[in-house]
Write a structure and sequence with these properties.
245 residues, alpha/beta, Rossmann fold, 2 domains, binds adenosine-5'-triphosphate, binds magnesium ion
């Protein structure tokens, strides 16, 4: 299965955000999209989903049986749900699953919901709790479970690590890495190191240009400083992107 970006130009308002972008994402496997704030990471995911229309170029999908089931799930960077919504975490995931099913929708296989929650590390003790009781990081996991419950071959994850504490990040990175064994996963991030061992290739976007290559071709100071300027520093021969906040 493949997603092919062909000479993609995408504007937001009058600004050309993605400029003649060419890339192929081949699954199963994990790809990272990095770049400074406003560089076009979310724009790229929205374009792959068909929510934004490129001004020229196209997105091609190869090898997906889209008629059979939803073939793509998206975990948004921002979400707004009423934190006091009177539903439990389990119902939140189950409800999303049901909404994608044809009528009648009430027949849900419980194990599908349970597996999604387990795979992203939401402890069973929380399944019956309301969303309002969760920390920001746990909400993030619940949204990943929501994307996962449809079991799509493609997952687009927009900054899944924001709001998560360091140990939680490592755990979540392992869950996402495991998922990439049988799915095509595209993750945007400000910290490519977290998923490095699972990463096929990295796409760096920003300032109207991009680089798409293997980890060791991309995570080099001379490449990253074009995008991150003085925040691309080298630590004991490893390039690191400084997160000042
Ligand atoms: N709805 C919109 N209308 C007009 N311009 C927009 C809109 N949304 C985003 N933009 C602009 O498009 C550019 C790319 O934004 P985008 O959200 O894709 O960046 P990003 O790389 O995801 O940033 P971040 O790291 O902050 O999430 C930015 O200059 C942004 O200001
Ligand atoms: Mg974004």
């Amino acid at each position: 299965m493949k997603i092919i970006l062909e000479s993609l130009n995408v504007k937001r308002g009058s600004k050309l955000v993605l400029n003649n972008l060419n890339a192929v994402f081949e699954g199963p496997g994990l790809y990272q999209v990095i770049g400074p704030n406003g560089s076009g990471k979310t724009t790229l995911l929205l374009t792959i989903m068909g929510v934004l229309k490129p001004t020229s170029g196209r997105v091609l999908f190869e090898g997906f049986q889209e008629a059979v089931k939803p073939f793509l799930s998206y975990m948004p960077q921002y979400y707004s749900i009423p934190r006091d919504a009177p539903i439990t975490i389990y119902e939140f995931i189950e409800g999303h699953y049901k909404m994608t099913k044809p009528w009648p929708r009430f027949k849900v296989v419980g194990s599908i919901v349970e597996e999604a929650l387990e795979r992203v590390g939401v402890p069973k003790s929380l399944w019956g709790e309301k969303l309002s009781k969760l920390s920001g990081g746990m909400i993030q996991r619940v949204f990943l479970a929501r994307a996962l419950v449809l079991d799509p071959p493609i997952l687009l994850l927009d900054e899944p690590f924001s709001n998560i504490d360091p140990e939680g990040k490592v755990d979540l990175a392992d869950s996402i890495g495991e998922l990439s064994r049988d799915k095509l996963i595209i993750v945007t991030s400000h910290d490519p190191i977290l998923l490095l061992e699972y990463t096929r290739r990295i796409l760096v976007v920003g300032h109207g240009y991009y680089v798409f290559g293997e980890v060791n071709e991309v995570l080099k100071q001379e490449v990253l400083k074009k995008f991150y300027k003085r925040c691309a520093i080298e630590l004991e021969r490893h390039v690191h992107i400084v997160d000042w906040h």
